[in-house]
Specification:
Radius of gyration: 24 Å
Family: Belongs to the peptidase M20C family.
Distance between the termini: 49 Å
Pfam family, one: M20_dimer
Enzyme class: hydrolase
CATH class of the largest domain: Alpha Beta
Largest sheet: 9 strands, antiparallel
Keywords: Cobalt, Hydrolase, Metal-binding, Metalloprotease, Protease, Zinc
Number of strands: 23
Number of domains: 2
CATH superfamily of the largest domain: Zn peptidases
EC number: 3.4.13.18
Number of helices: 12
Length: 487
């Protein structure tokens, strides 16, 4: 299957991507990919080091006649989001990603593809391998754990890098040049509850919400895609209001930075309400599907009779948490007043897990304005504290403030217009990029971000456009051949 990928142009980039995708590289489990990258750099005879947190730095001297140019840091992250469809049998810890070409795009077989940020990593590897490309001195920085905390960028100490310019290869539209991004904070609400014996005379149902689009909780949060946890909560709330539905368990969503696509719950309802419950449930499910028919046409909502569980959750806690999830904000909270069409602040209710006396709700709150981020986080905290949860805020990371006077921005915009006879979009994004964190220890470094076109990141629908990879590679090579002269 991957042989078809290795034949794509540019061959050096796609072959490195295929090699990389054969290596398990989940966030916080990057041991194998770190070893892979260390061996890669050492095999080229280049200076290859690993810092104390696991970031890999490979240095390559300037090509002849380029010694007088400013040193460039090429930066991408090694980890990828591991997500798969529930019906896909795949072990991320032992299997390489199965890739295929579909209508001009490369995608994976029922799993995330790892184009985020594997395409950036592969392009940097191709630059390091090449004996023909013109470039200044390069410091290739491969960070770890970008997707679940950016701890690699946070752990990189000042003074390790000597570069003047940083090219972050981690954005997802090939006509955009990124000069800013949002910061974020992880919010976790949790509590224990008493399990009560399931009443007699009930029927049990397994309720499923699936088939949603999902996507990146930063880049896609404004698109109106359904959130499986919010939809499930609507169903459970109405079931309780009308028929006294009791919850035994909920398992919804996954990673904080992925809009949840699926949720399952086991509930019980008095047998005498079976027919009425089924009728009202189907009516509500039909209404919700109509709401989302444009953005999520494949949404499936079902309730199947299942075995009666031994226990249900404490009634008072059930009422409190369903109301809290209903009240908790999900989606866009505020748009930027200074940059058109830019989401300023948002929240993703990413994970809901209720089982065996413990409940947990996990959110990722993002904003390009620190005070707005804290405002929304406090609003969410208040929702969950009111129903008896303890709330933890952690994983704070800063945004990256745009610099319209960036010297490297002028190089990129001019080169883009020359190569593609069009003007690039100079933007800030609502995703979290590592530039803001790296800039804390390297405040004088001139930073920019760009990349090929990637859709559906953080979901099994993730795909990268083949033509955009050609465009991205051409752009990257020309930038490196035209970097500024040292002052």
């Amino acid at each position: 299957m991957n042989s078809e990928i290795r034949a794509l142009e540019p061959i050096s980039v796609w072959n490195n991507f295929a090699d990389l995708n054969a290596v398990p590289r989940a966030s916080k489990k990057e041991e194998q990919v770190i070893a892979f990258m260390m061996a890669f750099g050492q095999g080229l005879g280049l200076s290859t080091t690993k810092d104390e947190v696991g970031n890999v730095i490979i240095r390559k001297p300037a090509t002849p006649t380029m010694e007088n140019r400013k040193t460039v840091v090429l930066q991408s992250h090694l980890d990828m989001v591991h997500q798969k469809n529930r019906d896909t049998k795949f072990d991320f810890s032992t299997q390489g990603i199965e890739m295929m070409v579909v209508d001009g795009w490369v995608k994976a077989n029922g799993t995330t593809l790892g184009a985020d940020n594997g395409m950036g990593v592969a392009a940097i590897m191709a630059i390091l391998q090449s004996n023909q490309l013109q470039h200044p001195a390069i410091e290739a920085l491969f960070t770890i754990d970008e997707e679940t905390g950016m701890t690699g960028a946070q752990g990189l100490k000042g003074g390790i890098l000597k570069g003047d310019i940083l090219l972050n290869l981690d954005t997802e539209e090939d006509d955009e040049i990124d000069i800013g991004c949002a910061g974020g904070v992880d919010l976790t609400a949790s509590r224990s509850y008493k399990e009560e014996e399931t009443p007699s005379g009930v029927m049990a149902y397994q309720i499923s919400v699936k088939g949603l689009h999902g996507g990146h909780s930063g880049m896609d949060i404004h698109r109106g895609f359904g959130n499986a946890n919010k939809i499930m909560n609507r169903l459970l709330f109405e079931g309780f209001e009308s028929f006294g539905l009791r919850i035994a368990s909920i398992d919804g969503g996954g990673l904080r930075n992925a809009i949840p696509r699926e949720s399952e719950a086991v509930v019980v309802v008095d047998e005498i309400h079976h027919d009425a419950f089924a009728l009202e449930f189907n009516q509500l499910a039909s209404s919700i599907k109509k709401e989302f028919k444009v953005m999520d046409p494949n949404l499936v909502i079902s309730a199947e009779v299942t075995d009666v569980p031994a226990f249900v959750m404490e009634l008072g806690v059930q009422e409190g948490i369903t109301r809290a999830i209903y009240a908790a904000h999900n989606g866009v909270y505020a748009m930027s007043p200074t940059m058109e069409d830019l989401v300023q602040t948002s929240n993703n209710i990413a994970r809901v897990k209720i089982k065996e006396g413990k409940l947990k709700v996990m959110c990722l709150t993002r904003s390009s304005v620190e005070s707005s981020k804290i405002d929304l986080a406090n609003a969410l905290r208040s929702c969950f504290e009111l129903c008896g949860c303890s709330v933890e805020l952690k994983g704070f990371y800063p945004g990256w403030n745009p610099n319209m006077n960036s010297p490297i921005l002028k190089v990129l915009t001019a080169k883009y217009e020359e190569l593609f006879n069009d003007k690039p979009k100079v933007v800030a994004c609502h995703a979290g990029l590592e530039c803001g964190i790296l800039g804390q220890n390297y405040p004088e470094m001139d930073m920019i971000s760009f990349g090929p076109t990637i859709k559906g990141a953080h979901s099994p629908d993730e795909r990268v456009e083949i033509e955009s990879v050609k465009k991205f590679w051409k752009f990257l090579k020309e930038i490196l051949a035209n970097t500024p002269i040292k002052e």
